[in-house]
Write a structure and sequence with these properties.
The complex is a heterodimer. By secondary structure, chain A is mostly helical. Chain A is built from 14 helices and no strands. The radius of gyration of chain A is 50 Å and the shape is rod-shaped. About 15% of the residues of chain B have low confidence. The chains are: A mainly alpha, B mainly alpha.
């Protein structure tokens, strides 16, 4: 605005100096500045976009027309152009080093922030491994516990064999051991089946009868019955993992057989627990 | 900067998404100059800019799975880098002890890059002109750092790096209108800053008007 009034004053002065044409020039100039004053100046945004040729065709035409008449907008445009060209002239800074990622940069970064580089693949692998490991561990633990129970029961059973009079009480004490094995429904089923399936001699039935009848009031007999009809010979062989080439050692009806089975189960279970624990670290 | 063929770039991106660091490093080699240039102009300190740029590349590699093939990889990468630069700037403003203003002036002329420039300039022109240029560069850099972050980023992307309005919109996740207005206000503000420091400008760069 100021420029324009300056401009019209300038022509006024000029007109006064050149006296002959004074009124006419003044009139024309005044009309021109009124015309410019009526329309809006270009906004900064329009001027800036004008530099980048980002105006629509219509805007572009209007701006061109306005710029021809308006010194102020011309000056501002020149200023902005100058600023832009200064920015363009700024050199690209020289690279202080290459930013290529090395194993070291990645590991340093990981040290600083806990999340690993490939969290997705690792967690996928881990969940699968975890599942396998934890299930192996559970089975191994159960096997080891069973082994201990077998060992203990064989020891307890071998005691009354020596002293005949206390056989009844020994049977009753061995009975809770059996009932505790049946309280694990998944794994002990095959082993107790093994006991029933292989123990055809009267002693075997006697012990199982004793075991059944001794805690007659307790819930154990009821629990013990269902597993008996279920297993097939193949099933029992798989579960114990030891086919019976030497029946005496795994003959559960005999105390030494129980001891053998107990030791085998205990060792297998122990190895399983040990290895899975090592892998977890 | 030679343009990486779009197919090649997509392939490198895909390999990077499967964890191939070597493929990603080819992308790094291609874009590191632009990335560092933006971060440096945003922050004005070479060492800080180098650290921020390095972190930005690592962050990009870690999150490259989130990049969608249809979009511009350059815009995606520059967004990560400019976000990192803005974050750093905000942090340094919040803790004035580690403010960048302290670092601005310890850009001594004996640093390798400046010596190289000096040699190059001396070979072709008189050293006086170089000195003026360097002063001018520093003045413009200071002027940039006076701008609000969004305007600074828009101006750096547009006038220093030469990105199109569309690409700036993608990089800054803003509309074209917003981009246009940020660039305009940033330029205007920078112009006023330079105007205030007219006496530092070399004669040929003096701004034409003083209408105040």
């Amino acid at each position: 605005m100021e420029t324009r009034t300056e401009g019209s004053e300038g022509t006024l002065e000029l007109g006064c100096i050149a006296e002959g044409s004074c009124p006419l020039t003044q009139k024309i100039e005044n009309q021109r500045s009124e015309l410019v004053a009526q329309e809006e100046h270009l906004t900064i945004e329009q001027l800036s976009a004008y530099i980048d040729k980002q105006l629509s065709l219509q805007e572009q035409a209007e701006s061109d027309a306005h710029m021809q008449r308006c010194r102020q907008c011309q000056n501002l445009l020149a200023d902005l152009r100058q600023t832009v060209s200064l920015l363009h002239a700024l050199p690209q800074p020289e690279l202080p080093r290459s930013f290529v990622l090395s194993a070291r940069t990645l590991s340093v970064f990981e040290g600083r922030r806990p999340a690993p580089v490939t969290p997705v693949t690792r967690s996928q692998g881990r969940s699968w491994q975890n599942y396998l490991r934890s299930s192996t561990r559970v089975i191994s633990t159960i096997a080891a516990v069973l082994g201990v129970i077998f060992i203990m029961s064989s020891l307890l059973l071998s005691l009354p064999r020596g002293t005949v009079t206390s056989s009844g009480s020994a049977a009753t004490t061995s009975a809770p051991a059996f009932s505790s094995t049946t309280s694990h429904p998944a794994v002990p089923a095959p082993t107790s089946a093994n006991a029933d399936g292989q123990g055809h001699n009267p002693q075997g039935t006697a012990t199982s009868n004793q075991a059944n009848t001794a805690p007659a009031v307790g819930p154990t007999p009821v629990e013990r019955k269902p597993p008996t009809p279920m297993p097939t010979p193949a099933n029992s062989q798989q579960a114990v993992t030891q086919p019976p080439p030497v029946p005496a050692i795994i003959d559960v009806s005999m105390p030494q057989g129980r001891l053998g089975v107990g030791v085998i189960l205990f060792i297998l279970g122990g190895v399983g627990v040990f290895t899975t624990r090592r892998r977890g670290r | 900067m030679s343009e990486l063929a779009r197919d090649d770039e997509l392939q490198l991106v895909a390999r990077s998404q499967h964890g191939d660091v070597n493929a990603f490093n080819q992308l790094v080699l291609h874009y590191q100059q632009a990335t560092y240039g933006i971060v440096f102009r945003m922050l004005g300190d070479r060492d800080v800019a180098a650290d921020v740029t390095q972190d930005a590349f690592i962050a990009a590699f870690r999150s490259i799975k989130s990049f969608r093939g249809g979009a511009s990889f350059r815009a995606w990468l520059l967004r990560i880098a400019s976000n990192a630069a803005c974050d750093y700037w905000r942090r340094s403003q919040r803790h004035p002890t580690e403010s960048l203003d302290v670092h601005i002036d310890d850009d001594e002329p004996h640093s390798v890059s400046i010596l190289n420039t000096l040699v190059a300039v001396e070979q072709e022109a008189n050293p006086e002109e170089y000195l003026l240029n360097r002063e001018l560069q520093e003045l413009i850099q200071r002027g940039l750092q006076e701008l609000p972050l969004d305007q600074r980023l828009a101006v750096v992307l547009c006038d220093v790096q030469g990105l199109s309005y569309e690409e700036i919109a993608m990089t800054t996740q803003a509309t074209l209108g917003t981009v246009r207005s940020r660039i305009a206000r940033g330029r205007m503000r920078l112009r006023s800053y330079l105007h205030k420091h007219q006496e530092l400008l070399p004669f040929g760069y003096r701004l034409s008007t003083d209408r105040e």
